[in-house]
Amino acid sequence: MAVPQHSFAGVDRVSYVVVPYGHSFITARGAVARVLGISGLAFAPDNVTLLALCDRSAIFSATVEFDIASMELTNISWRDRWHVVQGSGGHRGEDVDGEGIATLPSGAVFVNHEASFVYRLPSWNSWPHATELPTQPVGILPDYVARGLVSNLAFESLAVRPGTSPWDSPLLILGLEGPLSRDFQRVRRLLEVNATSGEILCQKAILAPVNNPPLYLTELVALDDAGSVCSGRFLSLWRSWSASAGNEIRLYLLNTAGAEDVSRCTSIVQGDLGGPSDCVLSNLAMVKMDMLLRWASNLPLDGRVPVDNYEGMVLVPPSALGRASYDDLGGVALLLVNDNNDSPHQVGTQFVLLRLRFAEESAGADDNATVRNSSTGSGFDRGGAGSASTMLDPINENRELGNGESLLSVIVACAAVAVLLSMCVLAGYCWFHRTGAKQRWRGYLEDLASPRDDFALSSSQQHPAGAVNPLGVEYRGCAVTLVGQPMSADV
After folding, report:
1. 30: left (phi over 0), alpha (psi -120 to 50) or beta
2. In the chain, what percentage of residues exceed pLDDT 90?
3. Could you identify which of 68, 73, 103, 238 might form a hypothetical disulfide with 322, taking C-beta atoms 3.0 to 4.6 angstroms apart as the criterion?
4. Angle of the 437-449 helix axis to the 403-434 helix axis, nearest 10
């Protein structure tokens, strides 16, 4: 499902679940599996099962549970584990350092190997009967790319787009975490690959923002079903780390439309050209970037969620949150995960759910959405949904009153009106006697029958202070006291 062409207004609906270090579960085949080193996320073709790629040559499956009313992440229930091995060539049977994973509705699953390229795995439908998943390479890298890969800064991110028609091949989009060895240090390349032939169709270049320590690209999510690296939008996850500053995470919106295809550039340099196929940075149109989120040690997400080494990111289908579309959701929901590096000194494996809110969200869009699912409580430490510092307006600000609230409001309003009317009657009754209006009206009526000069009688003549009238009301100036009652009401 394509994300509408809306701009984003900020981050809200933040919640998280922490899987503690060393957590283990029993797989579908009765084996013990320990959760660690997750570097990539994707939803399986069933749009329900979460696939978590471990950089120690494994894939975990899990069920993700949400509170759909609050859009809160509540639990991660682990289900199974598969061993990923190289299925051909001289490295047959060896482990795969997987960093990115992507799936298609057809059942196709792809992973990228950081030090080489991208692989196809067996169809998702065959996984329940397998323990190992052998890989098959998709294409061959150009020589200048293969030779220019930098250790531990190569293929870190992977996204996929279905073909624009049934006879079109799907497109794989790979992102280099760092520069090629001959590129300027802030250059990051995106490669578009035909998933059937392995041909590289297009390359675009990103100029990473100036930062110390440097920012590295760790994940990509495609926002458009149609289009390509040559003309499309992506969410990109970036990280930096230093011993003094710790981790910093940023989320950028990328727009490749208008950026130059750099497939011809064996290197992208800032200064003098080293060869005929080199390109000067200042002469190239680069991918446009807009920052959506900054998350650092001194800037925790939502003011409470600590930053860590986040590497994996996936769009949550609106149906998983009980909504029919991204417009019903009022934005896109992102699920992020950190790589705990199998270290007890990190926060554990932390899953964080957040919403990127559409700027054009209509009032009450989330309230009118149809609720479709339910969820259970969490088995791990979790944080409830909150409002990040970048959030604009609460989504429920235009909430309609329920039946119980409406009835209570009517009762309170009626009681207030009754009290006001009583006070007015009492005040009028007091005024009527204090000012002698009663006597003047009586004299006026008598004068109509028999005119007289002194018809205006004073209040004290008719009702002297302390007198009691037939109604049982004692008058003391304008103080009215019911006879036999200890309290008085001053009007």
Report:
1. left
2. 63
3. 68
4. 60
Structure confidence by residue, pLDDT tens digits, 288-333: 999 999 999 999 999 999 999 999 999 999 999 999 999 999 999 9
Per-residue pLDDT reduced to its tens digit, 400-424: 334 344 445 556 566 766 767 777 6
pLDDT at position 489: 38
Grouping H, G, I as helix, E, B as strand and the rest as coil, residue 433 is helix
If phi over 0 gives left and psi between -120 and 50 gives alpha, with beta otherwise, what is residue 230? alpha
Amino acid in the structure at residue 10:
G
Cα gap 254→489, rounded to integer Å: 72
Q: Between the ranges 89-98, 336-345, 376-385, where is the mean pLDDT highest?
A: 336-345
Q: Give the residues across from 174 on adjacent strands.
A: 158, 191
Alpha-carbon gap, residue 148 to 177, rounded angstroms: 13
Quick: pLDDT tens for 136-148: 999 889 999 999 9
Residue holding tokens 């294409």?
Answer: 139
Select from 177, 298, 291, 175 the least CA-distant residue to 247.
Answer: 298
Q: How far apart are the C-alpha atoms of 178 and 473, rounded to whole Å?
A: 93
CA distance 325 to 75: 23
What integer pLDDT is reported at residue 425 of this predicted model?
Answer: 65
Residues 449, 52: Cα–Cα separation, whole Å: 103
SS3 at position 406? helix
Banded model confidence at residue 94, pLDDT cuts 50, 70, 90: confident
Q: Give the angle 182-183-187 at the CA atoms, nearest 5°.
A: 160
Please report the beta strands in 256-323, taking only residues with DSSP state E, as ranges in sequence order. 267-269, 278-280, 288-296, 310-316
pLDDT at 441: 47
Residue 436 falls in which region: left (phi positive, over 0), alpha (psi -120 to 50) or beta: left
φ and ψ of 426, to 5 deg: -60, -45
Strands 278-280 and 267-269: parallel
Give dist(CA 116, CA 156) in Å, integer: 11
**Can you give the C-alpha Rg of the chain in angstroms?**
36
CB atoms within 10 A of CB 406: 11
Residue 487 DSSP symbol? -
250 exposure class (CB count in 10 Å sphere: 0-12, 13-18, 19+) = buried
pLDDT tens-place string over residues 3-23: 998 999 999 999 999 999 999
Q: Which helix (H) or strand (E) holds 414?
A: helix 403-434
Question: Which segment of 14-23, 152-161, 222-231, 309-318 scores lowest on mean pLDDT?
Answer: 222-231
Closest C-alpha to 491, from 438, 461, 481: 481
CA distances to 196, 224, 228, 229 from 167, in Å: 11, 19, 16, 19
Distance CA 196, CA 169 (A): 6
Estimate the share of the chain in helix, then strand, then coil, as percent rounded to the nearest 5.
15, 40, 45
